[in-house]
Amino acid sequence: MARIDEPTSIRQGEEIDSERVGSYLKDTVPGLEGEVTIRQFPSGFSNLTYLVTVGEREMILRQPPFGKKPKTGHDMAREFRILTALKPVFPYCPEPLAFCDDPSVMGCPFYVMERIRGIIIRKKIPEGIAMTPTQARALSENLIRVLCELHAVDVRAAGLSDFGKPEGYVKRQVEGWIGRYRDARTPDAPDFEGVMEWLVAKMPPDTDRPTVIHNDYKFDNVVLNPTDPLRIIGVLDWEMATVGDPLMDLGNSIAYWVERDDPDHVQSIRMMATNVEGMLTRREQVRLYGEITGRNVEGFDYYHIFGLFRLAVIAQQIYYRFFHGQTKDERFKMLIFAVRILEGAAREIINRTDL
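Structure (tokenized):
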């Protein structure tokens, strides 16, 4: 059986008070008894994620990162709300258990949810999984199918009509991420001005069918069944979810997808095992999405380029914290190289597209 994703010891500077948190949870979540232990999941560059065990009950605690944060990011209350609304209609969500904004508990807002025990694919296929090309194709197809299920959720029925503003969504996203990049740019980062100008000039109109969108949907944010690793049983990390253009959501996902035949410099920033033989190509994923949803995916280059730019902004925001000494996490040092590679990838698509 493949190894379940497990936490490790807590990183220096990211410790939390287990006694205080445990006391809060025992007062808030019914039926909790026993010793409290807290460990940290080592992956991820954004919100901090911990495994809280009380007796035999396992829960996940999420809190914002330390240091400089984007004004609209890391909203724990908002993330808790989307889980609460979506869980009844999108079963891949973890069960939300408690939200706390009392600064006396942890000094920052946080929430706790059920743990979905399973396999998470990161840079390599986990030990214990022998994935054939046929299985790899099936898994990558399932990844798209679950995204399509999310985009089929009835926004009004889920009580999320006021969760986002689909009118002008693309324009706000483009302008917002441009502002974030300029705010987080360090002296060693590319200026990205050519890409940003193109995104403004080629902006598509609003979609006539807005949906709930995850905004960070990728392999290491989904949980696989440990006894059937081709089946997705959970979708994690809802901090950037909203109601908007689903093609923007797909573009953000495709930006993470490094194919088997991509050049070495692109392979160097690969974060997940998307290059395994048999995995769908980016083009095949877009085609499958269009077939399932019935949406027009012509002109998808725009959404892909935006996804690459947005991913570069996220990397730059995190690198900013390292550059200015706001975090000691050495993983962040190399993100400047990812920003440069993503800028080159976006320019390459712009140069060949007919948009």
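The longest strand covers residues 228-235. Residues 43 and 144 are 23 Å apart (CA to CA).
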